[in-house]
TrEMBL record, chain A:
Subunit structure: Heterodimer of LeuC and LeuD.
Protein name in UniProt: 3-isopropylmalate dehydratase small subunit
One matching Pfam family: Aconitase_C
Lyase is among the record's keywords: yes
Family stated for the protein in its record: Belongs to the LeuD family. LeuD type 1 subfamily.
EC number: 4.2.1.33
Keywords tagged on the record: Amino-acid biosynthesis, Branched-chain amino acid biosynthesis, Leucine biosynthesis, Lyase
Record organism: Candidatus Methylobacter oryzae
Domain Aconitase A/isopropylmalate dehydratase small subunit swivel: 1-123
Signal peptide range: none
Substrates-to-products reaction catalysed: (2R,3S)-3-isopropylmalate = (2S)-2-isopropylmalate
Any GO MF annotation of the entry: 3-isopropylmalate dehydratase activity
Gene name of the record: leuD
Cited function: Catalyzes the isomerization between 2-isopropylmalate and 3-isopropylmalate, via the formation of 2-isopropylmaleate.
Length: 203, 472
């Protein structure tokens, strides 16, 4: 996983709430056995017309949002299916940061496994950010994970909370499995005890 | 109560959590032990690829049970899968399971079916376990008093390699359902009514424990339906404390303990229910008698109403986000505000899925379908959740009731719940569906889904529109 670095990038606006993972990556694209190449299908049913051409009405098709790394979106983002294809598609498309008031739990966890920083803000803060983008499409925000700070040219900057363990992993691009396996002896001990307590699970 | 005594009262969630903690050190996420790992073909291939690339092995192959369900055809099973990408996914699953020595119920296996239907049939999940699967409807197994939740593919790989998961402890929510359900109101209606009440984000960050007399009255199948949809209310897991029904259901099944081990297991299971006086972080109370058969009218499972009500108008929502959501949902669904729900016509009816694909679901639907005919212009399909459900239904003659009424009786699979296998709606078609999600395009691009119980689906098939089954 790539370490997450401080960056300045276009902030794209999607003023929609309860965006579910079926919309982020529709089911017809879940049959692949690889992890890569999902970005071209991100938001497929909203993004493309039936003939395959870009739907100009869809937010992310606006020229001002091309190349954006920061997605600013409404409440409860990523609800529904657990499919990790959703963050794979988001990352592959080019986003590494999401800003919303809330996320579904499974999606939120999945983001961190894929180098995506999901930032939580208050409703009031989100409204300000959305207004700033709407008034100046193509505006760039700066995200500084190290200092847990977002700055915007319109003065709507803020600091955000994040679990220190997850922050460290994102900053260093660390692999969760490697970290867990440092505790291999404890897992062995637990398992020995488990076998004694619940022998029927091991029969 | 004395403070210390108070602190010792634990909820069932806390008991399971505490007994599965492997590492709990400051500065890092607690590491939780995983007893059972369920798998299907869609969310596992990249996890196996990851294992291979890092030279790691599956730590406990016996903890895994795998099936093929999402992409499998529900008819002409004897023919090769037409979609080459789906075919490759199915073949990859078989290869991965063979290579790692995993127990797989493949498409041709008599135990095959939807993962969350198959697993309980074989008694693979017991009370007090921690159970994961790369599938949000893993919540189903909370019906047995197991902490069961959906995970992403990276986590699937993590569990295969380490038998553990770094986890953040959830808050606890008690949903109390008091009293008795009216005739024809079901576990599905309770689940939809709860989602309607607390919203799809209402349970985010929580594990829900369902309590109250209406929950005790539910069969194991009903409890599975209810816990299955905990995720629709945002909660990763739902729980029902085990009781005699749970033990009765498990006894004698393939992976259930037997002999002296049964007594030992049973003694342990009986320690699991939440202690009297244990404190939940939130409590929601619902009266069962108030729950009418539910019909979703929008594109989110929280957009539901009783069958005896009207399609809401956007202005009726004071919250701006909800008003906007209603507006766009009605546009997508092609519905006009204030239309009686019973005036909504359907083109398609689907009974099946991990929510409502069990024997009890087909029994109640057959009771309603018996002697009727599917309305003109309506396609109705019944898709058993597993081959065992299919066989049982056929032994009881239920298949005959459906086919006589003009329904298609299919092979098991996820089918139209998420329409990955070719069973899908076309643009604008409207479906009464016993599945769990009414998201835009879920059952096919432009398709319109109304979530209902099996009895309501069967009644809609015969009438061609929704009907209040209480009045039949």
């Amino acid at each position: 996983m790539e370490p997450y670095k401080k960056h300045e990038s276009i902030a794209a606006l999607m003023d929609r709430s309860n965006v579910d993972t079926d919309q982020i990556i529709p089911k017809q694209f879940l049959k692949k056995v690889e992890r890569s190449g999902f970005g071209v299908h991100l938001f497929h049913d909203w993004r493309f017309n039936d003939d395959g051409s870009d739907n100009p009405e869809f937010e992310l098709n606006k020229p001002a949002f091309k190349g954006s790394k920061i997605l600013v979106v409404g409440d409860n983002f990523g609800c529904g299916s657990s499919r990790e294809h959703a963050p794979w598609a988001i990352a592959d498309y080019g986003f590494n940061t999401i800003v919303s008031t809330s996320y579904a739990d499974i999606f939120y966890n999945n983001c961190f496994k894929n180098g995506i920083l999901p930032i939580k803000v208050s409703k009031e803060q989100l409204d300000k950010l959305m207004a700033e983008i709407a008034a100046n499409e193509g505006v760039c925000f700066t995200v500084d994970l190290e200092n847990q700070q977002v700055t915007t040219p319109g003065g709507n900057g803020f600091s955000f909370e994040i679990d220190p363990f997850r922050k460290e992993n994102l900053l260093n691009g660390l692999d969760d499995i490697g970290l867990t396996l440092k505790h291999a002896d404890k897992i062995d001990q637990y398992e020995q005890q488990h076998k004694q307590n619940f022998p029927w699970l091991w029969a | 109560m004395h403070a210390l005594e108070y602190a010792m009262k634990k909820t069932m969630y806390e008991k399971i959590w505490d007994s599965h903690l492997v590492v709990d050190e400051a500065g890092q996420a607690p590491l939780l032990y995983v007893d059972r790992h369920l798998m299907h073909e869609v969310t596992s291939p990249q996890a196996f690829e990851g294992l291979r690339m890092s030279g790691r092995k599956v730590r406990n192959p016996h903890s895994i049970l795998a099936t093929m369900d999402h992409c499998v055809p529900t008819k002409n099973r004897n023919l090769p899968i037409a979609d080459p990408i789906a075919k490759k996914q199915i073949e990859t699953m078989a290869e991965n399971c063979r290579e790692n020595g995993l127990n797989l119920y493949d498409m041709k296996n008599p135990n095959n079916g939807v993962i969350h239907v198959v697993v309980p049939e074989h008694g693979f999940v017991h009370p007090g376990m921690v159970v994961v699967c790369g599938d949000s409807h893993t919540a189903t197994h909370g019906a047995f008093g197991a902490l069961a939740f959906g995970i992403g593919t990276s986590e699937v790989e993590h569990v295969m390699a380490t038998q553990t998961l770094p986890q953040k402890k959830s808050k606890t929510m008690q949903v109390v359902v008091n009293g008795n359900l009216s005739k024809y109101a079901s576990a599905k209606d309770i689940a939809l009514a709860i989602t309607g009440k607390i919203g799809t984000a209402g349970g985010t960050g929580y594990v829900i424990e369902y309590t109250g007399s209406a929950i005790r009255e539910l069969s194991m199948e009903g409890r599975m339906t209810l816990c299955n949809m905990a995720i629709e209310a945002g909660a990763r897991a739902g729980l029902v404390s085990p009781d005699e029904k749970t033990y009765e259901y498990l006894k004698g099944r393939e992976f259930a303990p037997s002999g002296a081990a049964w007594d030992q297991a049973l003694a342990y299971w009986k320690t699991l229910p939440s202690d009297e006086g244990a404190v939940f972080d939130a409590t929601v109370v619902i009266e069962a008698a108030d729950i009418a058969p539910q019909v979703s009218w929008g594109t989110s499972p929280e957009q539901v109403a009783g069958v005896d009500s009207l399609v809401p108008a956007p202005e009726s929502f004071t919250d701006e986000t909800k008003r906007k959501a209603c507006e766009s949902a009605l546009a997508y669904m092609g519905l006009t505000p204030n239309t009686p729900i019973t005036d909504i016509k359907v083109d398609y009816v689907f009974i099946g899925s991990c929510t409502n694909g069990r024997i009890e679901d087909f029994r109640i639907a057959a009771e309603v379908a018996k002697g009727t005919k599917v309305a003109e212009g309506v396609t109705a399909i019944a898709v058993p959740g597993s081959y065992h459900v299919k066989q049982q239904a056929e032994a009881e003659g239920l298949d005959k009731i459906f086919t006589d009424a003009g329904w298609e009786w299919r092979e098991p699979g996820c089918s139209m719940c998420l329409a990955m296998n070719g069973d899908e709606l076309t643009q604008g078609q409207r479906c009464a569906s016993t599945s769990n999600r009414n998201f835009e395009g879920r059952q096919g691009k432009g398709g319109r889904t109304h979530l209902v119980s099996p009895a309501m689906a069967a009644a809609a098939a015969a009438a061609g529109h929704f009907v209040d089954i209480r009045k039949l």
